[in-house]
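Changelog-adjacent note: as of this version, every example in the card shows the full chain rather than a window. The one below runs 473 residues end to end.
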Amino acid sequence: QVRVKAISCRFKSCFPHQNGCSYIDRRHESILFVSFHTPADGSAAAPQSRPFDLQKGGTFLAYSELIKNFDRIRAYMRDFYVYGFKSRDEFTKKSARSYDDERRRIESWLGDYMGFRRSAEGKNVFLSIDSRSLKHNPLYKAWKAKSFTRGDITLHFLIFDLLHDPDSPLLLSEITEEIDRRLSSFADAKTYDESSIRKKLKEYENLGLLVSEKRGRAVSYRRAKDTELSCTDALDFFSEVAPCGVIGSFLLDRAQKHESCFTFKHHYITGVLDSEILYSLFEAMHAKQLIQIKTLSRNREALTFLEVVPLRIFISVQNGRQYLMGYVPKNSKIGSFRLDNILSVQAIRECANYDRYRLRLDRLQSRMWGVSTDGREGRTERVEFTVRYNDDEEFIHLRMEREKRCGTVERIDGNTSRFTAEVSDAGELIPWIRTFIGRIVSIHFSDKRRELTFKQDLQAMYALYGVDGGETP
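Full-length structure tokens:
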């Protein structure tokens, strides 16, 4: 018999190795991430829980794939792989050894999707993914590599081995006695008191893995019956497009292997890194709470703590970026916060005026093009531009109708359409308006500074490409 030192719940199969037992994740095939064994003479051995590389003749690696703190992995993946703007030489927060360990760990999950470029500053690594061939978000692997203590994992397997039959419940005293009996077979075995086992059983009951039943004054526990996943198509879609889609990915791990029928033209996968923050915000919104968020300014690298009433989550249809819309008591304004800049969320207390703040956001939203409120209620800016197109370009008008949001589109004649909007921040429309350059015949902003900036940028573009722009609209 071999005592389990450490094992990830992701592993699907095992095979014998020399004097012990090892486990392999069949989704990777090449690396045996956790190994445990005892010497042939039966003497006690120090626990081993290190990754094992099968392609290198069975050698132990210098790092562990399992992680304790997801915040650190989130920061590494965002700075080095998602944004791709940092090189090894620019990493100064910790030692180069720490950087190398984190890089190897992430490469073990994402090796098939990584690319790099060399510049004068050094080698920059980034994710390179073709969404047309990608069925499932590879970043979900980071959520399935959580580390654990020796005691937790031993107790986990013992409990579920004892309660393998959903129709055979056991009392707490019976479970404790049987665990002690099994562990007595090992030298220097770890022991568990009844209180620790009761807490673990209660934890699994809250997770829905176990069911408790009263037997007089005693409590018995049995394994919850498995639920059949009747529609994996729904989970395939949910896991890739919904907020906190990682939940769907965990459920899919229980389903039979199948080919997803979905392919995504615009697949915004990086939002998964903010799933824990997003979940905490949803919890606070459901409870109508005031929270404190810790944010990191990307420009100043400065930490900021701010009290906010979370009201709604906005997700960009252009780039998939996620924003928190919240009321800030400090300045009595509603503002937006990028989720990838939020490091932590802490609940403070229930907010008595929560519904009133939501109604206030509803009124603002009718004049919002994106997430900017510009901090001013009741004050709007007017934007108007006219485009002209050919007889075979009816799609231009249809596109304006489809993408107008809070604006209006008026057809002037068979080849001319006019867009008009009253918005809280006209600057948010400029990137969209630029996509019509070449067809715009006139444009006007109520804020003449924005209009002047737009036209100057247009002239600068003409000059850059050596084009005679003619008369600016």
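Structural remarks: The chain has twelve helices and 20 strands.
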